[in-house]
From TrEMBL:
<feature type="signal peptide">
    <location>
        <begin position="1"/>
        <end position="20"/>
    </location>
</feature>
<keyword id="KW-0998">Cell outer membrane</keyword>
<feature type="domain" description="Outer membrane protein beta-barrel">
    <location>
        <begin position="7"/>
        <end position="210"/>
    </location>
</feature>
<dbReference type="InterPro" id="IPR027385">
    <property type="entry name" value="Beta-barrel_OMP"/>
</dbReference>
<dbReference type="Pfam" id="PF13505">
    <property type="entry name" value="OMP_b-brl"/>
</dbReference>
<keyword id="KW-0732">Signal</keyword>
<comment type="similarity">
    <text>Belongs to the Omp25/RopB family.</text>
</comment>
<dbReference type="InterPro" id="IPR011250">
    <property type="entry name" value="OMP/PagP_B-barrel"/>
</dbReference>
<keyword id="KW-0472">Membrane</keyword>
<protein>
    <submittedName>
        <fullName>Porin family protein</fullName>
    </submittedName>
</protein>
<dbReference type="InterPro" id="IPR051692">
    <property type="entry name" value="OMP-like"/>
</dbReference>
Length: 253
């Protein structure tokens, strides 16, 4: 019996190394590469160009020469046309929120006219030939897509003319004119898409509210002709292209 027990122990000892050797080696597995999310950073200075169209709604009310009491309404018209210009600004981003300051200057050709209701022999004409905006911005970014709202001050260069109306002798003759630089406010909103590390393109809507202004129009000889209280606001849509520096695309692990 003792011999049988010793033989069994010997067989088990001899077979143990062989069994371990027969086990397959554990395969090597490479650790997965870390995930990298590309984040578009809107921070930095930018400069760009813009172009589009707009309309300025103007209403003329005649008052006593020199700016006295109300006399009568002369009617309204929309001065429409195109505009091109440029902008420069700075933005800084905190998480998904983007804040900015911007200055914009544009050449414009928004013009229109109407025959005066009060003086049917006269045609009142207006034109915006330039405007500027100084605004602050608050936006929210989804990576390389930015939606923002803006608001601030505006300045507009206006020209006003009175001509002899069609159907009257001397139709088209300049009777009186004046020019005006008017300050007001502006609000707007835009959507911008970053299509390259430093380039973005977007669309923007702006409204300029300019209130009323009482102006005296003078004859070509310089004599006072008539005085009108003219109200004005502007609506326009722009396409914008910007180049930004100082805030590259970054990788976040």
């Amino acid at each position: 019996m003792k011999k049988i027990l010793l033989a069994a122990i010997g067989i088990a000892a001899l077979s143990a190394p062989a069994s371990a050797a027969d086990l397959a080696a554990r395969p090597y597995t490479k650790a997965p590469a870390p995930m990298i999310a590309t984040i578009y950073d809107w921070s930095g200075f930018y400069i760009g160009i813009n172009g589009g169209g707009g309309s300025s709604h103007k209403c003329w009310d005649n008052v006593v020469l020199g700016g006295g009491a109300f006399v009568g309404r002369e009617g309204c018209h929309n001065a429409t046309g195109g505009t091109v210009g440029g902008q420069i600004g700075y933005r800084w981003q905190s998480a998904n929120w983007v804040f900015g300051l911007e200055g914009q200057g544009n050449w414009a050709d928004f013009s229109g006219d109407n025959v005066s209701v009060l003086f049917p022999a006269q045609r009142n004409r207006s034109k915006i030939d330039a405007f500027g905006l100084i605004t602050g911005q608050v936006g929210y970014a989804w990576n390389n897509v930015l939606f923002y709202v803006k608001g601030g001050g505006a300045v507009v260069g206006d020209k006003y003319n009175i001509y002899t109306a069609p159907g009257f002798a001397g139709a088209g003759t300049l009777l009186a004119s004046t020019s005006d630089t008017r300050w007001g406010g502006t609000v707007g909103a835009g959507l911008e898409f970053g299509f390259a590390p430093n380039w973005s393109v977007g669309v923007e809507y702006d409204h300029i509210f300019l209130g009323n202004r009482t102006l005296t129009l003078n004859t070509p000889a310089g004599a006072a002709f008539q005085t009108d209280r003219i109200s004005q606001n502007v609506d326009m849509g722009l396409v914008r292209l910007n180049y930004r520096w100082g805030g590259p695309v970054i990788a976040k692990y």
